[in-house]
Amino acid sequence: MSKNYQIAVFAGDGIGPEVTREAFKVLEVASQLGGFQINKKSFPHGSEHYLDTGELFPDPIIEEVKTMDSIFLGAIGDPRVEVGLVERAIIAGLRLHLDLFVNLRPIRLLADKFCPLRDKGTEDIDFVVVRENTEDAYAGIGGILRKGAPDEVAIQQMVYTRKGVERIIRYAFELARKRDRKKKLLMVDKANAIRAHDIWTRTYAEVGEEYPDIEQEHAYVDAACMWMVKNPEAFDTVVTTNLFGDIITDLGAVLQGGMGVAASGNIHPGKVSMFEPIHGSAPKYKNQNVACPIAAIAAIQMMLVELGEVSAAVNVEGAIEKVICHEEVTTVSALSGIPTDEWGDRVVEQMRLL
Ligand code: IPM
Ligand code: MN
Is the pTM higher than 0.85? Predict the structure, then answer.
């Protein structure tokens, strides 16, 4: 019997619905070619829904999505709503409530023409960042005292638990082993300035003893940014804190061709996971059919891997590569001159040819 996957869809705000539509065009064809079924359930939650109803992300919806096989999120964010309110409720909410402790962000350059670095090419940029996804400054411990007053105080705590640090480091070691490339893991922290990061240093050393086959390296986050630009070929698997992972993966996205291509998986192995492009909602491009859905399609490719539909994932990955490597494509972004729906059509066409 063919499998039938229940997928929760939060198309979200701005360009979210447009890139989501193309992503599901691809998933639909992947299911036809791969002999499995997709049953999607769309949820309206996002900024528009919040403005209309005052509802952010209610508990029954959180409980419902826990029962699904996977979750897709287009983009969240709208300038008419208080900064970060809906993003924290839905994106961070999914990550925390579903304990999606891994944020997997592959950085792979598919064509030299998209690389902003002089003298670097596809063979130099192929690594993956494993971002811790539930703790750090995102744990939600903080607030503002005497807001607006001259003696105002604002605090946000960086929270790290032994369990949280250990499980992400272990996941990253396993991934470095599974990738079977350079067999090395770089841990990125700022233990020289942030004393709490000592828990990362110690846990990394302890867990590392179980992985003698994996070369273990360490860099402070400021130096890691410098090395990512100077010697990206030295990177293979990177593990880091939530906040640093957020920052260095935007840098990584630019190395691979920009926010138009970068995707991520918010994963709890063995449980429901959530996949999303790492770009935002880009309100100025909303409903113009110019947004590039390649990152959203790449998120579908990551979802297929996690669902175990590996040959479908390989097919989508190959099709993306064919489409963006075409000589007519000079940039993978809203400025490409290629309409949103045509990107999806091109990927689907290649999927059928491969
Ligand atoms: C990301 C985003 C989010 C984050 C925001 C929207 C809360 O920047 O997924 O990288 O900071 O994690
Ligand atoms: Mn980010």
Answer: yes
